[in-house]
Amino acid sequence: MRVMRRPLGLTLVLVLGAFLAACETQLAPPYDETLVEELTAADEKTLVLFSAVSDGSEASAFPQFGPRYEELIGKFGALGHRAEARPVPPLAQKLADQLAKYKVLREVCGGDQGDPGSCVNSSPSAINTIVENLSKMRQTHKATGLQEDAVALFENAYKISIQQAMTVETALKRSQ
Amino acid sequence: MPIDVGKLVEDIMNALKGAVGDGWSKIAGFAEKQSKMLANQAAMITQSRIDGSLKDDDDLFEFFVDQLKEMTENFARSVATLTLLTIEEAWNAVVHVIWGTINSALSSARMAGIPIPTLGPASA
After folding, report:
1. pTM of the entire predicted model
2. Domain assignment of residue B121, yes or no
3. B117, part of any domain
4. What is the pLDDT of residues A141-168, one digit of tens each?
5. Shortest Cα distance from B99 to chain A (angstroms)?
6. Which of A10, A110, B7, B117 suits A75 as a labelling partner, its CA being 20 to 30 A distant?
């Protein structure tokens, strides 16, 4: 039986072609599946907490909620660090440095930390806002209790920030 | 095999429409939802300051006002990241079509392909 063989030259061309096709330009950080899964899990727990205090809660009831606040604040803090620590593509960093030359963009992208990279890797800022929000809610609950309208404000603020983080993080999963 | 320029133009336009269309659709949907939530938060803060728990709580009122500014900045940053992703997808879609066509033609002539370009020298 005659065996059909592909010429070595053609094989090399195909292999090289596949390698070259894999070279992609990236302007934003890589997708982090673990980050998305853990944000989703923390989101569920946070919504359960909001549901438990939605009618308001006295300061005397705080001890039963304390560990839940601590777990969530710690979890979101760790996820913020994870999002911050991931590598930003070199071209994205260059873009961030260029953006920092313009005052308005420097203010928006740099924020208080003066890091222009927050426009190419925006999730850490949103997650940090979640940590501040839950920390203030915890402090208020412990000191004076939570009134119903304050809970609604904390919850809406939380939903704004988690939506910012989740939308960007899921979009980082490129379509190809 | 010669390159069919007319078909290549059509393929580029289709790739571009797909990448930009998907990207814009994501950004528009996100922006609409965020705008409603930010507007709602502003209304809730104001109402609570007038006759709710923020009426006599300056500290919490200032916290929510400062936080509203921070969340609006984070919204702009999120839109910036989503826009960069759209540019990235558009660039990669177009270069894949063009360089893919060139490499396909070279490959059929049993010649080595050329590398797909990346944006900017730093990413090369």
Report:
1. 0.85
2. no
3. no
4. 999 999 999 999 999 999 999 999 999 9
5. 9
6. A110
